UniProtKB/TrEMBL annotation:
One of its GO terms (molecular function) is FAD binding. It comes from Dendrobium catenatum. The lineage of its organism: Eukaryota, Viridiplantae, Streptophyta, Embryophyta, Tracheophyta. This is Xanthine dehydrogenase. The keyword Flavoprotein applies. The keyword Ion transport does not apply. Transmembrane segments: none annotated. SUPFAM superfamilies: CO dehydrogenase flavoprotein C-terminal domain-like, CO dehydrogenase ISP C-domain like, FAD-binding/transporter-associated domain-like. The gene is XDH. Residues 248-433 form the FAD-binding PCMH-type domain. Its cofactor is FAD.
Amino acid sequence: MADDGWSSEAIVYVNGIRRVLPDGLAHLTLLQYLRGRRRNAKINPHYAVNACLAPLYSVEGMHIITVEGLGSCQSGLHPVQFVPYIFLYLGCTHLLVEISVHEALAQAHGSQCGFCTPGFVMSMYALLRSNKVPPSEEQIEECLSGNLCRCTGYRPIIDAFRVFAKTDNSVYTKSYPTNGEFICPSSGKPCSCREGKVHNSESSACGSTCGEHRPVSYNEIDGSLYKEKELIFPPELVLRNNLPLKLHGFGGIRWYRPLKLKHLLDLKSLYPAAKLVVGNTEVGIEVNFKNAQYPVLISVSHVPELNVLSIKENGLEIGSSVRLSRLQEVLKEVIAEREIHETSSCRAISDQLKWFAGKQVKNVASVGGNICTASPISDLNPLWMAARADFNIVDSKGNIRTVHAKDFFLGYRKVDLAQGEILHSIFLPWSKHFEFVKEFKQSHRREDDIALVNAGMRVYLEEVESNWQVSDVSIIYGGVAAVSLIAAKTENFLIGKTWDKNLLQSALKILKDNVPLAGDAPGGMVEFRKSLILSFFFKFFLWVTQQMNTNGFLKESMDGTHLSAIQPYSRPCSSASQNYEITSVGTAVGLPVVHQSAKLQV
């Protein structure tokens, strides 16, 4: 392939400073580069990306903001994030103290070992930068779901960042009685222990030890300072056109970034074994932890044809390079705008994406990458299969063929792609009247965890002689075989049957034998996973029946004890209180004092 038109000049901005990335660094991640440039760097890019996975050249033409860019003890903590904290004491005047988001985290005892602290700061900062309006408490907790802390228990971190939420201040004032009677947090009974204890507070200047420490809500803050002093996107990058890149790395690695589909297809024809990357969330794991070697990497993030998100008359076209977070946003828009019966599959995928991964992963991971990885525990592949999605595949000559999602997965991490072919786009048809699609997932923890078992299920009901019969059905499981498994025997049994309780019992008997799980199956917990296979279908039957009952099309009685199985999970925002006793005055022992390294860690 001719080298004409390819550029080896790569530039980025780091905290407002222009840097030229020399050729020969394709083997590095963003984290490795930044740590090599500056000692003790604490890294996490502006829009919440895992710098330990992001290839260095994948951020070419972008502005990288790190913790150092926000501020430090040497240069001063970032002034644009100064927010007031209020100390409330009964019978005392209010004391206002201004601190930054760094100081907020330090003052709220949000750091201990400090290892995770920069990540939390940057996740919160990215949320504020990407939101045009103050975020809700739910959004704050969601943006932090991809960050792990093993010291603090998260409460002080959440408390520190709540200042930015558009919330009622009453969330911080927890039931202080006006009659003086206090309910002890330990016993739940009236007591007078408050006289010598502090509830989430420090001793006040007037001698009272009773009080509350809280931030005011974001809507009480003048945001002009925050907006005017923010690091701007470099004008050079605004005016600069993207260039097709050809770069190299240690060990003969070649890195390409084509800007046209034709150039991508030419490269794939020239290097059939080349790995296509967008967010590098899977390839990066294979290279770093499984010692995989990929001499040719092709970034497909800048190919316009692969980034299409088009709402059509009969469905939604999704380019294979579309990021999962972008897909989630568009699905929410579609759900809000279209008829409810058309968006059953959209709602299922949107709900599954909520638990798919942390924000940092979804911001860069692509739809096509997740599909073509063909992981047996993929949360999305069972849903594409159940929802009757079609995959459009293009070869090196530009010819496009269509494969049903159910036929695309051939074996463990094997898909129906010939050499030189790539996944071009996914077509998700609108669901029909009386067609219901539902997602299921069970993992060790709800957020940011891989599935033990997941599933995608769909049923299309038709009225025949006053009975609602199964016209079409899909039952797909993940985490029970080398590929996403179709429960074909159960599907065939259900076709033409009347949708009632008798059908449920019969289907469960067939399903039990239809999805076998060996006693030594990889992943263990075999008996529990077997129970999940049946319980998912049980929940699906209850959910569909309730939908039909609610709309007046069915009058199937439902056991009240079963209804809890289909209640949507909604976790309220985290809340907590502290109750401790001031045992000594004039010494740090026993006092809620910020540790000395806190401001260095943020």
